[in-house]
Amino acid sequence: MTASAASPRGSTGPAQPETIFTWAGPALKFGVGAVDEIGYDVAALGTNRVLVLTDPGVAATGVPQRVLDSLRASGLVAELFTGVHVEPTDASVRAAVDFAMGGGWDGFVAVGGGSAIDTAKAVNLMTTYPADLVEYLNPPIGEGKPPAGPVKPLIAVPTTAGTGAESTAVCVMDLLDLRVKTGISHPRLRPVLAVVDPSVTLTLPPGVTAATGFDILCHALESYTARPYTAYEKRRPEQRVAYCGANPVSDIWIQQTLPLLARSFRTAYHHGDDLAARTDMLRAATFAGLGFGNAGVHIPHACAYPIAGQVRDFRPADYPDHVPLVPHGMAVVLTAPAAFRHTFAADPDRHLWAAHVLDPATDAVRDERERLPEAVRRLMRDLAIPNGLMGVGYSGADLDTLVDGALKQQRLLSIAPVDVDADLLATVLRESLTVW
Ligand SMILES: NC(=O)c1ccc[n+]([C@@H]2O[C@H](COP(=O)([O-])OP(=O)(O)OC[C@H]3O[C@@H](n4cnc5c(N)ncnc54)[C@H](O)[C@@H]3O)[C@@H](O)[C@H]2O)c1
Ligand SMILES: [Fe+2]
Asked: CA 369, CA 130: separation in Å to the nearest integer?
């Protein structure tokens, strides 16, 4: 299939279209000062012994200690684990599980970005229902075993404005031997409460602000352009999955997300101490999480898995430099301009609306297909994202292995609004070698 042959799904249409969508989210407490009330909220969940999980960088901000103080002030037994790995791996998740196992915890609090929140989801599952990690990982890499029952309450305190992991039912990790990213996906993994306090994001350095902000942007754009839930074959209740495709409730969250990003992403990057801009960004992250956490994401996220998993020596500014790393949000946005060029035909109105809201100046771009790619490219340039895959160390010689890695993400590719095969992925990745 050639790139231009990327065809909207449903040209033949499902034999029996889906009529039902589902939507779920955590309880939410949002606002400056929310972190210092967390003891009250966690005690109200009926917990007594709570493990707080974070990474060393977040620990250094003092926020996890504030959480611990608040928990103890509410009479809870609370301990801190600071060993979360930035971009978790199977090894780091197993180490966190080993630390937590046998501690008698009846609740978990994750303080950090997606790395801490995802690690805590896995720890919660694996200490509640011990099994080998591979049993729980998504097929085809793992066995996709569901949790045997309810897990313990997990409370998430996001300290990046990015992943929306506090709202989602998945956790993601690198499998070191296989050099792929995969995850565990089940509605029971979703945190019961998100305590979202913009003041804790004031310490985010510019490089992390940029990468995590592009994660928000791609969550919003991918879920807004996702295959509609009505374009699937009807499922039985037990077949319904956490990501059900674009739906009217997810759409509302995304329609609120993009104006916030348009207004405040550049300001939060250039003026990190601007609390109003940080508040907008954290609202955007939360809103996008509530949207994509039910609709799903597609081509840029599927490509991001091998882009992050096969990194050789790229070391981004403002991230720990002990290992090569393409941060998640950066890995995602590198293929976004090309991806939205090829999804345009599935729903031109949605692509044009998003381009206009993000950057009205793109209305002047004559080729309508290029407007959303151009809006994304302008933001990437302004926020010092590398110019494409070559900017993070890949070359044309890597395309075949990147295509193979992206093809493994069938759970995500099934959300794309166009049929995705190896040829289309190769086209998207080739066009992403240099973005401008
Ligand atoms: N579960 C999901 O739905 C989901 C969605 C998207 C991404 N992810 C995963 O999330 C991970 C990435 O998470 P992330 O982008 O939030 O970043 P992160 O958690 O990896 O943190 C990035 C860096 O920022 C530092 N940091 C975090 N908060 C800080 C603060 N307030 N002040 C100063 N430094 C701070 C951390 O120490 C770390 O060095 C990836 O593993 C990705 O695959 C999960
Ligand atoms: Fe993401």
From this structure: 49
- Nearest CA residue ID for atom 3, ligand 1: 165
pTM: 0.95
Structure tokens at 205: 């350095």
| CB 108 within 8 Å of CB 120 | yes
State the pLDDT at residue 162.
Answer: 96
Is the CB of residue 207 below 6 angstroms from any atom belonging to ligand 1?
Answer: no
Q: Are residues 63 and 158 in the same domain?
A: yes
| Domain co-membership, 116 together with 231 | no
Q: From the CA of 295, how far away is ligand 2's center (Å)?
A: 13
Q: Compute the distance between CA of residue 48 and CA of residue 45 in angstroms, rounded to an integer.
A: 9
Which of 54, 58, 203, 212 has most ligand 1 atoms within 8 Å of CB, for mutation? 58
Query: How many Å apart are CA 80 and CA 398, to the nearest integer?
Result: 41
- How many structural domains comprise the chain? 2
- State residue 8's pLDDT score: 55
What pLDDT score does 11 carry? 58
pLDDT given for residue 5 in this prediction:
42
Say yes or no: CB of residue 86 within 6 Å of ligand 1. Answer: yes
Query: 3-class DSSP state for residue 49?
Result: strand
For residue 58, which of 411, 320, 234 has the smallest C-alpha distance? Answer: 320
Looking at residue 386, what is its pLDDT?
A: 98
For residue 56, give its domain range: 31-201
Report residues of the chain scoring pLDDT below 70.
1-12
Domain finish residue from 145, 169, 201: 201
Q: Is 61 in the pocket of ligand 1 (CB under 6 A)?
A: yes
Q: Which atom of ligand 1 is nearest to the CA of 212?
A: 15
Residue 368 Cα distances to 350, 372, 387, 399, angstroms: 12, 8, 22, 28
Residue 26 lies in a domain: no
Q: Which residues contact 170 (CB under 8 A, 6 or more apart)?
A: 118, 121, 183, 184, 185, 189, 242
* pLDDT tens for each residue of 403-425: 999 998 888 999 999 999 999 99
Question: Which residue in this structure is represented by tokens 């490219």?
Answer: 377
Q: Which residues contact 337 (CB under 8 A, 6 or more apart)?
A: 372, 373, 374, 376, 377, 380, 431, 432, 435
